[in-house]
Amino acid sequence: MKLLTQNLTKLPRVRQVTTKTDEPIPEAIHYLIFLDNGYGASIIDWRNCREVEPLGYILELAVINYDQDEPAEFWDSRFNLDYDTPITDDVICYLDEDSVFDLVRQIGEL
Asked: Which residues in 74-106 are b (16+ Cβ under 10 Å) and which e?
């Protein structure tokens, strides 16, 4: 988990990375990446979850947007899933880390 967080913070245009473990499945790790263009990514890491292992989940990503004018402490509670981007119109599942990094870079170019 620590390595994924460190790699995400090194991506271009990243303003903040927030990590949460308060999902309905406690072993899942939720990353929120906020980019400098008002977009970002919500990433769920399922790799420690025995419950979803048979489904083959690794990482999943959704595009988010947020109000850059609000103070940063509000971003992780006031973001919106954005299903109207050229990246995707849904959640993208079954990703590996390289695919996640590539998608976050693409989101940074929106």
From this structure: ebbeebeebeeeebbeeebeebebeebbebbeb
What is the number of residues in the chain?
110
Per the structure block, which two tokens stand in for 36?
Answer: 């400098």
pTM confidence score = 0.84
Q: Please check whether residue 4 is in contact with residue 95, taking contact to mean a CB–CB distance below 8 angstroms.
A: no
Q: What single DSSP character describes residue 82?
A: -
Q: At what angle do helices 2-9 and 97-108 cross, to 10 degrees?
A: 30
Q: Cβ neighbours of residue 26 under 8 Å, at least 6 residues apart?
A: none
Q: How far apart are CA 60 and CA 58, in angstroms?
A: 7
Encode pLDDT of 64-105 as tens digits: 999 988 888 888 788 999 999 999 999 998 898 899 999 999
